[in-house]
Amino acid sequence: MKRIMLALCLLLSTPAFAEGPYDGAWTVPNGNFATFIQKGSEVLVLLLEQDLSGWVPMMGTLNGTQMTGVSVVGLNLRITVVFTSTTTANVTIDSCAPIQECAFTPGTKFTISKMF
After folding, report:
1. Which distant-in-sequence residues (6+ apart) come within 8 Å of 51 by Cβ?
2. Of 25, 46, 69, 84, which cross-links 60 as Cys (Cβ 3.0–4.6 Å)?
3. What is the C-alpha separation between 106 and 97, in angstroms, rounded?
4. Stretch (H or E) spanning 110
């Protein structure tokens, strides 16, 4: 419950309006979700497990259509996201540790789709 409350606080502490074309909720191939909130070149990403049992907050920098992000607590996760449109993006897991807690191993590539 504390995790859900912290996630809500993080989301509610950002502006309520969508500033970027990639803002919104995205589906991840393993059934999990990601939310992207953009303000200028800064991006807040919140990775959520489908059963809400875990989450990973990330901060990233957007340069054109490419975002690089790192986790701020929990996993030591680094990703690269290349937006191919406002509704699809290709994700590469650059690194993740401890490996036993990672949903995807480093080097994994997959496509995510925007839900809304």
Report:
1. none
2. 69
3. 9
4. strand 109-114
